[in-house]
Amino acid sequence: MSELIALLPGDGIGPEVIHQARRVLELYRDKAGVDVELWELDLGAERYLRDKTTFPKDIADRIAKEARAVLLGALGDPRVGNLDYARDILFGLRFGLDLYANIRPVKALDDRLVPLKNRGAKDVNFVVFRENTEGIYVNVGGQFKRGTPDEIAINEDLNTRKGVERLIVAGFEYARAHGAKTVHLADKSNAMQHAHELWYRCFFEVAKRYPEIKPQHVFIDALCLYLVQDPSSFEVVVTNNLFGDIVTDLGAGLQGGLGMAGSASLHASDPKRVGLFEPVHGSAPPLAGKDLANPFASFLTVGMLLEHLGHPAEMARIEALVARGIRERRCTRDVGGELGTRAVGDWFLAELLR
Amino acid sequence: MSELIALLPGDGIGPEVIHQARRVLELYRDKAGVDVELWELDLGAERYLRDKTTFPKDIADRIAKEARAVLLGALGDPRVGNLDYARDILFGLRFGLDLYANIRPVKALDDRLVPLKNRGAKDVNFVVFRENTEGIYVNVGGQFKRGTPDEIAINEDLNTRKGVERLIVAGFEYARAHGAKTVHLADKSNAMQHAHELWYRCFFEVAKRYPEIKPQHVFIDALCLYLVQDPSSFEVVVTNNLFGDIVTDLGAGLQGGLGMAGSASLHASDPKRVGLFEPVHGSAPPLAGKDLANPFASFLTVGMLLEHLGHPAEMARIEALVARGIRERRCTRDVGGELGTRAVGDWFLAELLR
Ligand SMILES: CC(C)[C@H](C(=O)O)[C@@H](O)C(=O)O
Ligand SMILES: CC(C)[C@H](C(=O)O)[C@@H](O)C(=O)O
After folding, report:
1. Nearest residue on chain A to B186, alpha-carbon basis
2. How far is the CA of A249 from the centre of ligand 1 (A)?
3. In this predicted structure, what is the pLDDT of residue A78?
4. How would you classify this enzyme at the top EC level (chains A, B) (predicted)?
5. From CA B254, how far away is CA B237, in angstroms rounded?
6. Angle at B90 between CA B17 and CA B158, to 5 degrees
7. A158 CA to chain B: closest CA distance, Å?
8. Which of A43, A128, A160, B95 yields a CA-CA distance of 20 to 30 A from A179?
């Protein structure tokens, strides 16, 4: 039986990169027997401007019940003037599908892409497990006396034992499955004595179940410093929603930019459930429609999607091909090439077919 | 009349670097007529282990009433087992003295110290204004059903119009005084819709009073990415307490490490009030007592202190001498030299005396 994959190209450069990613998926479907049904969703800024639709319940329900994966391009369009519609969709997927583990590999595929002196691709290779359903993103809080000199504005960083534990477990399970020797917790428990004391305590409790793995603690500020000095000692990093967001953008910088960073959001304890796959980059309005967007992030994201569908070997193949694209300059300008989005896609498809 | 400067060497490498910084201050006192009275405080881990004293009210009161500055080394000692005593002192100073602007220059003094390929010292030169009395650091929140599977742990990110506005004003005032063309706000207003909507709104309101300066907005995740790609476009960054903490550690990485980063915490609207001066580094227990600590961060911090005392030209002089120390390898190992803390101090003092 074929697996239903929802494609949500979205805004800005989203449609351009998802178009190329779609070609890759179609190739796997037509030539490699990966039995998928592609279902393209007309959601995002265009749709919102047309009829105010953001994330309809019938679509959300069908995704939850029938889909195995959602492949999302990017959301955000200056014409709309705010991000409410984008949050409806993005958080509708992340929260609505309870995709608690946002998995973001920070892996450099070519020495040239690493912006650090005396460091090469081999030094940039870790995976961030970002909690994806709680923390500051719940947007609990409010504004009191808004617009007056006495205004108070609050957002709560909300963490549950259940939410924290399952994310940490996902990180350790991944470490075990991949033979990692360490897992790092990144927090700010020296300042956030309630929320991050829970993270700290839970981390070392969970670690006891994985005696072969060394649990290590690092403050988020120190982590960001180490990442620009020497990222080579990190293998798996578990962290909260906000810090995961920050550290993976920094990590994208170490990989060669947002055009090189893919991600998966999973309900990690049950691999049969639907997953969300998105390049880490945004909609990049200034690049949109110009054939300038780097499709490699979305190809790497497709690699994670194929792994989710039960084809783990394809990730390595896609990664190797992206690495060759960089090496041979068959890539876009942001990573040192001169090709357009479409030409990179053409080359990639042709090579995949060999 | 002489100005009272409280010295708080603290823990770990704190006493070693503050000893050198004290020599610099004494030299300014004895040879350059900078009329200061030095008052050394016996506070920190040693004192706490001896008699449980953390931050006594009589000392806090005398600082508030009589001192012009506090020069703090670092706090934190593994023998104590927790950081409560350290927070009593550090937050006692920052919050107790209402030092709302934590000013952290991110300035590389030598090309060799910049860890980025194709970037030199000229590309790393901005100042972070970190809000220092609110945000997540108020530690408002709690734990509910602690230790059970249903545990909930919360920290509130608390922001007031007054607190946000005065910090943003401090950043713009600095920008105006130093001829900066831009001020960046770094926030996460796309996720923290209450707390950071206030920051966003307030930023652009304040900016109207500074028509010659261009206000620019950047999300914190994007900022961390830009900083490893190309930090050269930033001049002044205003941000909240937590993001300021993170971004200045990353910034220290761009400057050559924590051994090169100084800071001042001021009640910026009233320069006559007491200020707190601290190197950005921590107590670094593994380095303590080994004559390995880099004293340059504390010398640069003394430069900021002298500026606070009304001697702005000395900052440039100290900075130039530190730059020469790096260039001529009259420095510690962390920045490519072979000297010990004391030997660097000896050289620095001798050069200052010329
Ligand atoms: C668009 C924004 C809300 C989002 C986030 O913060 O999660 C983005 O930065 C990301 O990392 O996917
Ligand atoms: C020790 C810690 C609480 C402190 C902070 O987070 O402010 C430190 O990281 C700093 O930047 O001065």
Report:
1. A246
2. 10
3. 96
4. oxidoreductase
5. 15
6. 140
7. 5
8. A160
The closest CB to that of A228, out of B245, B248, B254, belongs to B254
Strands (E), A145-297: 152-160, 182-187, 214-219, 236-239, 264-266, 275-277
> Judged by CB atoms within 8 Å, which residues 191-230 of B form the interface with A?
191-198, 220-222, 224-229
Q: Which residues of B touch A250 (CB under 8 A)?
A: 221, 224-225, 227-228, 250
Residue B111: Cβ-neighbour burial (10 angstroms; 0-12, 13-18, 19+): middle
Q: Which of B198, B194, B176, A93 is nearest to B185 (CA)?
A: B198
Mean pLDDT of chain B, nearest integer:
97
| A235 within 8 A of A183, measured Cβ to Cβ | yes
Which of B122, B129, B117 has the alpha carbon at shortest distance from B107?
Answer: B122
Domain boundaries for CATH 3.40.718.10 within chain A = 1-97+274-354, 104-264
Does position A341 have pLDDT exceeding 90, yes or no? yes
pLDDT, tens digit, 9 for 90 and up, residues B335-345: 999 999 999 99
- For CATH 3.40.718.10, list the domain ranges present in chain B: 1-97+274-354, 102-262
Structure tokens at A175: 């470490």
Contacts of B227 in chain A (CB under 8 A): 250, 253
Q: Do the Cβ atoms of A225 and B250 come closer than 8 Å?
A: yes
**Of B229, B267, B232, nearest to B96 (Cα)?**
B267
CB contact B136 to A (< 8 Å): yes
Question: Is there a contact between B151 and A157 if contact means CB atoms under 8 Å apart?
Answer: no
Per residue in A43-96, pLDDT (tens digit) is: 999 999 999 999 999 999 999 999 999 999 999 999 999 999 999 999 999 999
B1-97+274-354 CATH:
3.40.718.10
* A257–B contact, CB cutoff 8 A: yes
- Please report where in the chains the tokens 């190197």 appear, as a residue: B279
What is the layout of strands, in order, in the sheet containing A214-219? A36-40, A3-10, A67-74, A275-277, A264-266, A101-107, A125-131, A236-239, A182-187, A214-219
pTM of the entire predicted model: 0.98
Convert B251-306 into a string of H (helix), E (strand) and C (coil): HHHHHCCHHHCEEEEECCCCCCCCEEEEECCCCCHHHCCCCCCCCHHHHHHHHHHH
> In the predicted model, is pLDDT for residue A231 greater than 90?
yes
In this structure, are strands B214-219 and B262-266 parallel, antiparallel, or unpaired? unpaired
Which is the closest atom of ligand 2 to the Cα of B91?
A: 3
Q: Scanning every residue of chain B, which has its alpha carbon at the shortest distance from the alpha carbon of A335?
A: B229
Orientation angle between helical segments A195-207 and A161-177, nearest 10 degrees: 40
User: How many CB atoms sit inside 10 A of residue B269's CB?
Assistant: 12
Ligand nearest to the CA of B249: 2
Q: What is the fold, at CATH topology level, of the domain defined by B102-262?
A: Isopropylmalate Dehydrogenase (3.40.718)
Ligand 2 touching residue A225 (CB < 6 A): no
Class of domain A104-264: alpha beta
Per-residue confidence band for B96, with pLDDT thresholds at 50, 70 and 90: very high
* Element at A301 (helix H, strand E): helix A296-308
Task: Tell me the per-residue pLDDT of B36-84, one tens digit each, with 9 for 90 and over.
Answer: 999 999 999 999 999 999 999 999 999 999 999 999 999 999 999 999 9
